[in-house]
Amino acid sequence: MSKLYQGKTALITGASAGIGLEFARQLAAKGCDLVLTARRQDRLQQIAAELTQQFNIKTHVIALDLADPDAPVSLESQLQAQHLQIDILINNAGFGLPGTLVSQPWSAHAASLQVLLVAPTQLCRALIPAMRERGWGRVINVASLAGLVPPSASHTTYGAIKSYLIRFSESLALEEAKSGVAVLALCPGFTYSEFHDANGARSRVQALPKFLWMDAATVVSQALVALEAGKSVYISGRINQFIAGLCKFLPNSIAGWLVNRNAAKFREPNGANDVSNG
User: Fold this and answer.
1) What is the pLDDT of residues 231-274, one digit of tens each?
2) How many angstroms separate the CA atoms of 235 and 147, rounded?
3) Where do the DSSP E strands lie in the chain?
4) 172-212 residue pLDDT tens
5) Which residues are annotated as catalytic?
6) Domain 2-277 carries which CATH code?
7) Neighbours of 272 (CB within 10 A)
């Protein structure tokens, strides 16, 4: 697999921490050049310098906020201006929006939808045609286990958005089946990263059993194997695979009760003014 990515260029959104940063590290180790994007330019430049020095690859930094509706078009324009050919797209940027639908202003919900739903779809539409012309491309849309289990109260749109991303990826994989472009929806569960610090949920989620957690390095390495194996959806880890399977097997009423009972332990029911994105 290492030679497969050598000399390719990957665009990674939300590359400044967590799963996005780990994708950058593992792809760089395989000889892949990188275009890193997130809001924190100084952090991105630091990461780019470290990976360039360690792996002797080319790195490019494009700092922007995908919550801005104009950001995807701006990103595409900057790629074209710098003559950057994207072979691998990792849609990873996240957005933490706790609370209920009515506890957050519409502006926060609109930003969440823009980052998690609109931008990934728009970037796929912008970059896949050139991949098809070259006969080779890879897309990973980072979804979530939340998109495969029954909904819970609070974090109202998150599971729904991730369900969309999973179905979207499945359809896209079917459309591109003969084009040389592989598409994967990655569905991690709880993963050690800065995400829970950013959205203020660390104190709650750290009380969860350790067996529910995975490290970002394992999540990413498994995702890359699943991608090359031709999977369109991959659930990280056996525990998460078991949970998703159990929710399919159980009646909706029971599965929903279990999800809501456990979600209440780590989700902020109100969450006003507690918003983060990456």
Assistant:
1) 999 999 888 888 888 877 666 655 554 555 555 555 555 544 33
2) 11
3) 9-13, 33-38, 59-63, 88-91, 95-96, 137-142, 181-187, 190-192, 213-215, 233-235, 276-277
4) 999 999 999 999 999 998 786 655 444 445 455 565 656 56
5) 158
6) 3.40.50.720
7) 14
